[in-house]
Amino acid sequence: HHGILGMKWGVRRYQNPDGSLMAEGRERYSKNSSDYESYRKNLNKDPKTLSNKEMKDVIYRNNLNNQFKRVKKETDLGYKITNGILEKVSTAAVAAIITAGSSFIIKKGKGFISEIISPKKVIETK
């Protein structure tokens, strides 16, 4: 891909320098797909008035919508399960790290206090 002839690097089509859309950009990005437009138009019509092709298009689009919803639902469920497992594992790992760290600090602290109270080194004074 070599870009569009005449386009400058860093310049976006259909956008102002501040990122807002130009009139052409608003028109371009506000359009729905033609399949969706015909689907919505034919969805509420009486089936007797539709041609075979129009009826097949409506049924096909409806099936695609249902499949998409099912896949999205499965994806969301997988995300929830994975997120729950990771949350539990990370909580357990943090608890283990805190426990190990605190026991280490307590041991070192006891050793330090015992050295202060009864020092092993005898300091000679002259």
Please characterize this protein's 3D structure.
The protein is mainly alpha-helical and 126 residues long. It has three helices and no strands. The chain is elongated, with a radius of gyration of 34 Å. It starts with 22 loop residues before the first helix and ends in a 9-residue tail after the last helix.
Brief overview, please?
The chain has 3 helices and no strands. It has 126 residues and is an all-alpha fold.
Q: What portion of the residues fall into strands of 2 or more residues?
A: under 5%
What class would the helix/strand composition place it in? mainly alpha
Instruction: Calculate the terminal CA-CA distance, rounded to whole Å.
Output: 87 Å
Q: Provide the residue-averaged pLDDT.
A: 80
* Tally of contiguous helical segments: 3
Task: Jot down its keywords.
126 residues; mainly alpha; 67% helix
Protein topology:
Elements: H1 23-30, H2 34-43, H3 52-117
